[in-house]
Each structure stands twice: as structure tokens, then as C-alpha cells.
Amino acid sequence: RISSMGKVKIRISVLGHLPYFIDQKKMKKWESELFEIVQEIGVYTIVENSDGDNWEFSDSNITSQLPKREDEDILILLLNVPLQDNYFARRFTDNRVCVTYNEMTEMLKFNNIPLENLLFRVLYSVSFVYRRYGDRLPSIDEPTNFSHDETRGCIFDMNGIKSDIIYSLNKPQLCHSCVEVLTGNKNHRIDKNLINKVQKELKKIRKARYYQILDFVKRYPVLSIIISSVIAVV
Fold first, then answer.
1. Exposed, middle or buried, 57 (CB in 10 Å: 0-12/13-18/19+)?
2. Residue 9 half-sphere exposure toward CB, CA atoms < 13 A
3. Burial zone of 60 (CB within 10 Å; 0-12 exposed, 13-18 middle, 19+ buried)
4. 3-class SS at 36?
5. Contact 20, 101 (CB under 8 A)
6. Backbone angles phi, psi at 164, to 5 degrees
7. 3, 109, 111, 121: which has the fewest C-beta neighbours closer than 10 Å?
């Protein structure tokens, strides 16, 4: 059957201390045909220390500190601590997901990518996964195949090399194979019209205008000089 349910309801909260600014207004104003952000952003404290050999927090450690999900479909927690297996996003029980900015903040700032773009990418990917698996998120131990190892600028890039994340945080996409998977699932097919709308929405996840112009100048220096000269003459 084709999934024609309403929007996926997502609540965003913070677990621990975030030593940088996340534009909450930008997140609340974001409009999507796939999901909607509900309620105010809550803040919860990390009360346990890391228990991994490399100062990471194990799944069991994080699970013991996660707040309970309320009436939202998915609860997303933002953190700034390393997660098990060095993931930047990790699924937990009861449709809960942790997104850590540990190591990611410096990477995004160096490439002039807004920190919110990482969260937006996760919002879209987990919403599609939620619909694909019959309105639930599979546990971290459950075999899945929705990510691909090749970096394609797609929201389902695995990003085993974390620095590759930058290619799916500036005008990301749903790659052709992912579209086929989402629309070809016999049990929970996603409507192609929704896919097309989301593709347009993903293009809005981009750098600030100033850095877009800067990237254009770097990529086409001669053309940029010609355009500048023509404008100056006019």
C-alpha cells in the first residue's frame, strides 16, 4: 500500500550541554510535507560519565538517560558527546534518535555549513525510515539496508568517513536508488508526489547566500571576473 498518512510528528530536545548556538527559530519555522516539529525544545541533563575506552557513551549508558517519548512519533535528542562506534546519529528504542555534534561542529564551521543543516538531514532521513518500516524506527541491532556506503550527496549516505558529511548538507538529495527503494516497497510504499516535494525541500538545506557566492567565485574565477566587470560597466 502507498503511505498516505499525515506528517510525522517529531519532538526535538537537548541532552546535556551544547556549547554552540543552534537556531531554534529556524527549526521551528521549517515547513515540510513529510514531517512537523511539535512542542517546545526541552533540555535534559547527562548525569552519568562516559563508559567507553575512547570517552564515548555506550548505547546502554545513553539509553538509561533518555527521556520518555510522549505523544510525538519520533523524539530526537541533540548531544555534544561521542556515541558508541563513533556514529553522529544513532537510533534507540521507542522511536528515539540521538544526534551528536561532537567532532561535527568544527567540520561544519570549517566548510561554512550551518549547524542546523545536520539536524535537517536527520529529520528527513528518520521520517522516511519511520514510514518505510510501518511507522516505527528499527532498533540499532535490527538488520537494515537503507544507508549506502557510497557518498552521493544523499540523505542516506552512510558517511563512514565522517568528513564526507559535508556533501549531503548543502543542497542534499534523495539519490535515484533510494527513490526506487522508497517507492518500490511492497508493504509501505512512499507516494512519488511526496518524494518530488521533498526533493524540492532538500534544495533549501544550503549554505548562507554569502558562502554560495564565494563557492561560485572559487569554482568559476574567470567567469566571476567577467560578470563583475560587466556589472561595473553597466
1. buried
2. 9
3. exposed
4. strand
5. yes
6. -70, -10
7. 109
